Amino acid sequence: MAPPILILRDIDLTFGGTPLLEEAELSVLERDRICLVGRNGSGKSTLLKIAAGLIEPDNGEVFLQPGITVRYLPQEPDFAGFENTLSYAEAGLAPGDDPYRAAYLLEQLGLSGKEDPSQLSGGEARRAALARVLAPEPDIILLDEPTNHLDVEAIEWLESELKSIRSALVIISHDRRFLENLSQTTVWLSLGATRRLDQGFQSFEAWRDEVLEQEELDRHKLDRKIVREEHWLRYGVTARRKRNVRRLNTLHNLRQQRREQRVENGTVKMAATEARSSGKLVFEAEGISKTYDERPIVKNFSTRVLRGDRVGFVGPNGAGKTTLLKMLTGELAPDEGSVRSGAKLEMVSLDQGRESLNPNWSLSDALTGGGSDMVFIGDQSRHVVSYMKDFLFQPEQAPTVVSALSGGERGRLMLARAFARPSNLLILDEPTNDLDLETLDLLQELIADYNGTVLLVSHDRDFLDRIVTSTIAPEKDGQGNGEWIEYAGGYTDMLAQRKGESAIAPVKPKAAKAKKSSGTKQQTKSKMSFKDKHALETLPGQIAELQDEIVKIQGQMADLDFYARDPEGFEKAAAALTAAETELAISEERWLELEMEREELGS
Question: What's the pTM?
Answer without folding.
Answer: 0.70
